[in-house]
Specification:
With about 90 residues, the chain is of the alpha+beta class. The protein contains three helices and three strands. Strands 1-2-3 form a three-stranded antiparallel β-sheet, with no helix packed on it. Strand 2 and strand 3 form a beta hairpin. About 0% of the residues are buried.
């Protein structure tokens, strides 16, 4: 028998609580200013700039229809990441 929570249990917790529980035990290096769970991780790489790191997923049937053209899925995936960078005050440097 599995100890994994059911989908109903996960849904009742909500995304933020599930993420909080998943990342609670992850180690953070001394240069990580904001870790997993926010829009982006923020890493001090030295100098005047900070580095924003982001992962995200787009899932067929959840975020787009399975018959959606790959180019549209790609744009959506990119826009989600760029939106999170903007939410953290990120600015493109190159």
């Amino acid at each position: 028998m599995s100890d994994a929570p059911s989908q109903e249990q996960l849904e009742s917790l909500g995304e933020e609580e599930v993420v909080r529980r998943l990342v609670a035990g992850l180690p953070m290096g001394k240069n990580v200013l904001v870790g997993a769970g926010d829009d982006c991780a923020v890493v001090d790489v030295g100098g005047d700039d900070l580095l924003l790191l982001k992962t995200d997923a787009v899932v067929a049937g959840v975020h787009f229809l399975p018959e959606t053209e790959p180019e549209r899925v790609g744009w959506k995936a990119a826009a989600r990441v760029v939106s999170d960078f903007a939410a953290m005050g990120g600015v493109l440097t190159s």
